[in-house]
Design a protein that fits this description.
Layout lengths: L3 E8 L2 E9 L3 E3 L3 E3 L5 E3 L5 E7 L2 H15 L10 H17 L9 E9 L6 E9 L5 E5 L7 E6 L3 H15 L10 H14 L10 E6 L5 E7 L2 E4 L2 E3 L9 E3 L5 E2 L24
Parallel strand pairs: 12-15
Antiparallel strand pairs: 1-2, 1-10, 2-11, 3-4, 5-6, 6-7, 7-8, 8-9, 11-12, 12-13, 13-14, 15-16
Helix pairs in contact: 3-4
Length: about 280
């Protein structure tokens, strides 16, 4: 399977951001692996993001189609509510899945996150949409807590991520000036769980997409093991590389050319008690 997770960043005004992260490994059994598979999708015109885990072939097709429909204005109306948007997404998934041969149906999970309104009127939503081998589609809506937190974690690497997350959060709790559940801690724990390699079904580079209070969805470039990655694919430096916002494994903003932290970016030193994954 994979590691797939979503978390929300909370500030004094409420939810300020939502992220979805995944690894890049697609596996056929335990012996055949491919570490450049795309697992997250972000709209270029709307605040809509998706990620998947489980059976690969159906989600990767339907999510590519859904994002294209959204970007061309063929799925949502401008003033659609969250309930209306969710209903449209689920119906498209259901109708497509019914057309799939029964023998080719497998278990999959999709995380869908969206935002209604913007700036201080922003309201964020995260939903898990799941399909099973019988062709049934179900969904689960999540409520947010009053502090930044992981909304949902899925996949074969879930327990390993949660173990690394506890290492980050547990120590920070001792510092009254730290919330212990910042986006930095979630993403760093996620990257450490990947580097550790404890889950053989998860691997490759991290993938990251997100929503802020303003603007459309964002796809983040990731600086990982001295290379640049976007949606699982390694990139070389080109003139327009910084058209993408780059982050390293400590969630620091970086320059895509130098792969070093930007001059005015906030430093996020790694917690000294956490050992580097082997």
């Amino acid at each position: 399977m994979t590691i797939l997770l979503s978390w929300v960043g909370i500030d004094t005004h409420g939810a300020a951001s939502v992220y979805i992260a995944s690894d890049s490994r697609i596996s056929w059994g335990c012996s055949q692996q491919w570490d450049v598979g795309r697992k997250v999708f972000a709209s270029k015109t709307s605040p809509e993001i998706f990620g998947y885990c489980g059976d690969v072939s159906f989600p990767i097709q339907i999510l590519g189609q859904l994002v294209e429909l959204i970007d061309t204005g063929c799925l949502f109306e401008k003033n659609d509510s969250y309930e209306v948007k969710l209903n449209k997404v689920v119906k498209k998934i259901e109708s497509s899945y019914r057309e799939r041969p029964v023998i080719q149906r497998g278990v999959f999970h999709i995380i869908y996150a969206t935002r209604i309104n913007d700036r201080m009127n922003s309201i964020f939503y995260v939903t898990q949409i799941s399909g099973n081998s019988k062709g049934h589609i179900t969904y689960k809506k999540f409520n947010f807590k009053d502090k930044s937190h992981v909304v949902v974690a899925l996949g074969s690497g879930q327990k390993y991520f949660e173990s690394w997350h506890e290492k980050w959060v547990g120590k920070v709790k001792e510092d009254p000036h730290e919330s212990g559940r910042s986006s930095r801690n979630v993403f760093s724990a996620f990257c450490d769980s990947l580097k550790a390699g404890e889950d053989k079904m998860s691997g490759g580079s991290p993938q990251l997409i997100g929503l802020y209070r303003v603007g459309t969805a964002k796809s983040f470039g990731i600086i990982y093991e001295n290379n640049r990655y976007l949606n699982g694919m390694r990139l070389d430096s080109i003139t327009s590389i910084n058209n993408v916002e780059w982050r390293n494994i400590l969630f620091e903003r970086c320059c895509g050319h130098t792969m070093k932290i930007l001059g005015k970016a906030q430093r996020q030193p790694k917690l000294m008690h956490i050992e580097e994954p082997n």
